[in-house]
DUF4350 domain-containing protein (Bowdeniella nasicola), 382 residues
Amino acid sequence: MSDLYSPEALGLNMKSRRATSKWSWPIIALCIIGALILIIFSAMRQSGTSGNLSPDSTRPSGGRALAELLKREGVDIVTATSLADVRAQAREGVTVFIAATDLLSDFQREQLADLPSDVVLVGTPYLPFGALTDAVDTAAEGSSVAVTAQCSQPDAVAASRISPPRGSMTALRDGVELCFTFEGSGAYAVWEHNGASWRAIADGTLLSNERLADDGNAALAMRSLGQNPTLVWYLPVYEDSSQFFVYAPAWFRSFMWFALLLTVVAIAYWAPRFGPVATESLPVVVRGGEIVRGVGRLYASRRATEHAAGALRSGTIARLQRQLGLSREAGADATITAIAAASSRPAANLRHLLYGPAPQRGADLQELASELTRLESEVHLS
């Protein structure tokens, strides 16, 4: 029997298929990881404008209540989500409220450090202000009880006391007035910078919808943010940066570099297997063996064992009919009788082999192909 109809020629080598398909899972996994990364970054970006201390957010962590109170007092609130917007609005007689200092990159902090307007910062425990200011820095120590002003600063005195702050600040130089102090740290700081007033609140949750009405939180927030007729409410978003992945943690950047390296290695490994681009003049003559192998691989990829078995059987029957002098129109009974006489095989065995049910598994298909090969050899040698 010709090699063209062997299981290998028909692409029915299951081990090869499994070896090829095992590469599908890493590719699928990488696609899923990429999709998750896009979803996470999209969610993180949205959180910048509708999450913590957002002036239009009614969530417990939002700032809608504070924004409405400021508007009632005649303060014009301008929401900014980019550094360019902030710098365009910042001027004397304007207050810039940086509601999420933890989202700022080093570049943004440097650009915001010399604004000509008054500035109010919100701190985050464990995350320093960095280049944003050299006057104060955040500290992790908080208080479990409400804290009184303990200073002469008018805004702090008006508030009298605030709810237990989650975090605190320490002064780094002279000229900084700390209020609501406990254990050497403070929850509120005021200082002058380039002729402008700077204020910092250690715990941004004091300004949130959930905690604004507690103790003197609202008074402190109103007096700090309402000192000028215009308030620029700055909510940094993740795309507002001059550096790609500036907000991503170190492990994520390392992972992306590893993924890039893995992609390059995969391309270098697989690309040569496709070979160089070949040009052929038309019409193209295709060998019959190539067609058989192509069709066989198509059957294998679709697990079409029934079609493959039919191709193997019809090829064997056609060659044996030609060898035994039978016409192609000869029926199954006449064909089986002639082959049985030439091979000494029982007719029942031949009927099952040539006209029986199609195999359902790849191993059964390979066994059928081998048995058909032996049958042709027996008839050929008889």
Q: What stands out?
A: Residues 212 and 218 are 5 Å apart (CA to CA). Residues 24-50 form the longest helix (27 residues). The radius of gyration is 39 Å.
